[in-house]
Amino acid sequence: MGGRRRGGTGLLALVLGALLLLVTACGGGDAAGSGKNGGGKKEGGAAAENSASQAVVTVSPKDGAESVATSGALKVTAAQGALTTVTVTDSKGNAVEGKMGAGGASWEPVRHLSAGTKYKVHAVAKDAEGRESAKDTTFTTLVPKNTFIGHYTPEDGQTVGVGMPVSINFTRGITDPQAVENAIKVTAVPAVQIEGHWFGNDRLDFRPEKYWAAGTKVTVELNLDGVEGRPGVYGKQKKKISFTIGRSQVSTVDASEKTMKVVRDGKTIRTIPITAGAPSTTTYNGEMVISEKYKVTRMNGATVGFGGEYDIKDVPHAMRLSTSGTFVHGNYWASSGTFGSANVSHGCVGLRDVRGAGNGGTPAAWFYNNSIIGDVVVVKNSKDKKIKPDNGLNGWNMPWSEWIK
């Protein structure tokens, strides 16, 4: 009897010991109450990693907005975090260039947006824990009721002389010239500083400080689409053109000596007897650029303030030097002895020629055939004032210091 009791007590102790071991094992080694539970920390870290980012991305204008202004409306900001990625593209996938604010707090486009265009915005920001928050929106810019474009010269692909500026005449008067000028980019290879200058509120010319170097390649980018040139009037033009500067040719007319010296690439290739403006109708002094060429044209004094003094319907080999009517042209009505000896014109530069422009051997024909749009004709020693820089493509008559103001 006693032996059986001892056996029962041993079995009970064995069972209790096993239970105690099981409880200790489940304690994860924290039986001493230290609180250093590795398993608990892992579970807490996982929870933190999976929690939402605190960064808040805001896009203005709101998602789905329409008739959005092309300037000043688009802005992306981040609160409780910093922007890491902002991409804005139009419906064709063209990216909008932008600039990030300090610390990634904001993003804005560097230029205006195009009108009547749908844009897609994708922005990502990170909070202090490195967790990302993203936002995707779309909006559409306004369709303007009133628009303007710029008529430009020279033409795309043209080869022109070293004096040729980029000249743009706008169809509406511009009241925000800086916005319009910022939307036009003129570059050259080889590179040279090129600056714009406004003549009034509807004409903008670009040129370097000195004549272009022969062989220069010039590119003009007109990004006027969406520019608010005046209140409620937007540009609708987006175009890229390029032209080439040909050989250098600068011809100097000495009104006193009554000669024209033609210099090409630094060498005099011909000196031509001329007749300049008569004492009562002198020729402007200054640097003038050939802007148009006509093998035969009509010249009517009534159109340039001379009443009915002349109306010649077949002036040969005429090349325009000013808007006000200064030309270098062939003259068949004066005697051959006039050229080089007397100034008898109404302000133009005349060269000996024949009626009909059919003789390619005359001085006027030679000069016409050896000149291109953009060549420079300088007049000196005339008893007249210097031509105004906006009278034709003649901005070279303005000092560079004034041009860049």
Automatic annotation (TrEMBL):
PROSITE patterns: LD_TPASE, PROKAR_LIPOPROTEIN. SUPFAM superfamilies: L,D-transpeptidase catalytic domain-like (SSF141523). Pfam families: Big_10, YkuD. GO terms for biological process: cell wall organization; peptidoglycan-protein cross-linking; regulation of cell shape. One of its GO terms (molecular function) is peptidoglycan L,D-transpeptidase activity. Residues 32-52 are annotated as: Disordered. Keywords: Acyltransferase, Cell membrane, Cell shape, Cell wall biogenesis/degradation, Lipoprotein, Membrane, Palmitate, Peptidoglycan synthesis, Signal, Transferase. The active site is at residues 329, 348. Residues 249-380 form the L,D-TPase catalytic domain. It comes from the Bacteria. Pathway: Glycan biosynthesis; Cell wall biogenesis; peptidoglycan biosynthesis. GO terms for cellular component: extracellular region. PANTHER family: L,D-TRANSPEPTIDASE, L,D-TRANSPEPTIDASE YCIB-RELATED. This is Lipoprotein. It comes from Streptomyces purpureus. The lineage of its organism: Bacteria, Bacillati, Actinomycetota, Actinomycetes, Kitasatosporales.
